[in-house]
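Q: Protein A?
A:
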Amino acid sequence: MNKYVVRQPIKDKNNNIVAYEIMYEVDKMDIFNQVEDFQAADTISDFFMQNTSMISGNNIVFITFTPNLLFKNMPKVFESDKLVIQIEDNVVIHPLSNNLITKYRKEGYKVAANNFQFNPKYFAIIDSIDYIKIDFKNIEHSSIDNLVSMAKGFNKKCVATGVDSKEIYDYALSKNVDYFQGVYVSEIAKTHMRKTEFIQGNFFRLVVEVTKAEPDLEQIEQIISRDASLSYMILKVVNSPYFALKNRATTIKQALTLLGLVQLKRWVYLLSFKNGDSKEAEEVLKISFLRANFCAELVKYIKDFPINLNEAYTMGMFSTLDVLIDAPLSELLDEIYVSDEVKGALLNHEGKCGMLYDLVLSYEKADWNNLKSYADELGIPRNVIAQVYFDCVEEVNNIWNNAFKVLKDK
């Protein structure tokens, strides 16, 4: 039995993350089937208890619970102030729904109704609902207007879901909803950096140099040495507990030798943006590095793949470069040294590389059907994907929680 779990951020109007929705599926088992629901509940229970702290951190989480999960007291895996119990139609129509929801509300849990509808069965429990989630992607505008007005009339927090494009985001913003969730929301970032400033900076010259087929270490050393900020951060990182070196690096040349080109490529990209004060950009950076790790680890399971592990890492890392820099990705990729396969995957979703990239995007969106299709075509065992994802989440968390503690001590 294969299990898939992914987190998707929920943001406010200022683009701050207020919570994550934890989305899951148990493969080859309908979790809403009454016969198999208890078995699914046990499986999901074990999975959540092993991984919740890793995937949610200190953020509030929204999780959908079936009736049997609620009856089994599954929400109590979480502290009441860290969880929003999300319910769908299968709970709403349950004869004991009011009792279930009232019970958890008394214990301090908040409740969200996913895909809220104009229907008497929903209005019967409206007093017990804190958040109303409305699908802005698949519902007509006239219905959305009525649902948002109703939510506001009952003093409920309104969450726009399915926000997968700027157009949908702008429309949701015009409706004065409280929170936003979707693919576009996951990647949107405010940045003060423009393309011209970026290309003229030492960081971009460094990226160009380290992505060459045969990087020139002396040239790399010169570029870093000319930039006090980059020099400081590289030395800070290489001497941090993250690498646990016996001897300290005191020069840029020593630092480069100890880091190696692969680690250098990863860290200079991160450090240059991390030096700013944009929380939005930091979240996009985390997406970049999660995709990079995810792509690189999944490549290990694919036979006869056209790019190697390091190139797959680069593909994931550069997938959000246009969002961070606010410039067309096609122009940025023309300035740096990436393979045609990576460029084709990022720009046009072409070939096997494009298929791997689409698999990673499908996992982020909890598009389980496409995820399975891509996994089967690439020959990736379904049963390893979720664990690989969580291993990658842990790696990204380690980078932020360990190495950058040093950078904060300026």
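Q: Protein B?
A:
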Amino acid sequence: MKDGKIVVGITQGDINGVGYEVIIKTLVDTRINDFCIPIVYGSSKVAAFHRKALGIENFSLNAINSPTEANDKRSNVINCISEDVKVELAKESEEAGDAAILALERATEDLKNGLIDVLVTAPINKKNINVERFNFPGHTEYLEQKFSPNDKGVMLMVSDVLRVAILTSHCPLKNVSSLITVEAIESKLQILNKTLIQDFGIVRPRIAVLGLNPHAGDNGTLGLEEQEVIIPAIRQANSNGVLAFGPYPADGFFGAGNFANFDAVLAMYHDQGLTPFKAIAQDMGVSFTAGLPIIRTAPIHGTAYDKAGVGEVREDSFRSALYLACDIFKKRNDYAEFSANPLRKQMKKETHNPERE
């Protein structure tokens, strides 16, 4: 932190998409500067291009070379791509992919060195960024390799009313069944349980687990994954102190609003979790990479090339991502402080008892 404010690193994402639009629309509200110091990793020139395209006046980024130079009363930018980069709105290009990688690499290095506190990533195009130097399906896998190569993160979608984690994340649907194992489910439930406690301040989280097959297998008549894998995994998690329940059929679970009875939901595959989440959370949802030693959030939308430069994209999801990153930073610090000396914390809470004197 700097001057009591959280230092937020923001990567520009794909320069031809809506990343800069949601960044600028969020940071133009100067109340952001009351509690955090935003630092955009990208280009002041590209930011100016998008600002003009959007017709936004009276906004600029303070150019710096390092987070240590950041102005705590303004939004800042670290130029980490060529000044000659070409912005081509709504177009997929290799140059845009390279620019996204450069910004992410610089921000990641500063995060690793403790120069920024949290990371908020604007959308990338997984096709033009998936080159030899960045051979990862997305941000989650890249950050796993950088910060915790022996552990896996969990993609957790967060809103005010619903949290959904994905077991198999980014993989083809045909591979999902083979990736559903007792070990994988139990591990993800342990990670999810821990993040709900330390990052969201929930003392005893309740986690719902969805089935894989229609009607959660219908007692084995529509598939055996529930009987042979998912139920044993839930029981194993329960024996290890995790309050996990299920498996629940996804359609009835969300349709009847049962998600309101739980602190989080573990879905078996990407669309099983994200489709109902986006329908319920709409523009306010956030993606959080749980289970890593660093804090990274992102909006739930993509590059949205079809809307780039038009000015119609809402910034709600990106703004919520910035807020959530700061909130998790505070809660994680509070949890670490409490865990370091819980007895002292408890003693401070005790009231004076004259009978002890």
